[in-house]
Each structure stands twice: as C-alpha cells, then as structure tokens.
Design a protein that fits this description.
Oligomer: single chain
Shape: elongated
Number of strands: 0
Number of helices: 2
Distance between the termini: 45 Å
Helix content: 25-40%
Order of helices and strands: HH
C-alpha cells in the first residue's frame, strides 16, 4: 500500500501563521522558540470566564471524594 502526502504551497490558501513573529520555527520545528517569541502574558481580569455548567458541577461533585481521600485507591 502506498501513501501520498499533499504539500501545500504558500499561494494555495490562507497563511495561518500570519501575524506571528517569523523566526527559525518557520524552517524547522521549534516550539520553545515559537512560544518565547509569540506568547504574551494575559493582563486582563476574569470577566471572559463563564460559570460552571450542570455537567461540570456533576463531575466536580463526583470527584470531590477522591480529592479528600488522596486519589483513587490502588490495589
């Protein structure tokens, strides 16, 4: 069985990296450098957060006893 890969050229579509600082990560995988160059700390407040959903509340209630015991019991 043979497999083929499609190579997209820059002119084939949108450039998802547009707006990021160009560095070595564009030529080779370098996650650390990408993060250092392009991630900025969030200095806003928590108003963008939404409240808990019912599903989250149920999951949290089910997990609370495990936190109090120190996690699931191992055999």
């Amino acid at each position: 069985m043979s497999k083929t890969a499609t190579v997209l050229k820059l002119e084939d579509g949108p450039m998802p990296w547009q707006g990021f600082i160009p560095e070595k990560w564009m030529q080779r995988i370098n996650v650390r450098e990408f993060i250092i160059e392009n991630v900025a700390p969030y200095e806003g407040d928590d108003t963008f957060l939404s409240g808990q959903t019912e599903r989250t509340k149920l999951a949290w209630a089910a997990l609370q006893p495990l936190f109090l015991r120190g996690g699931p019991q191992r055999r």
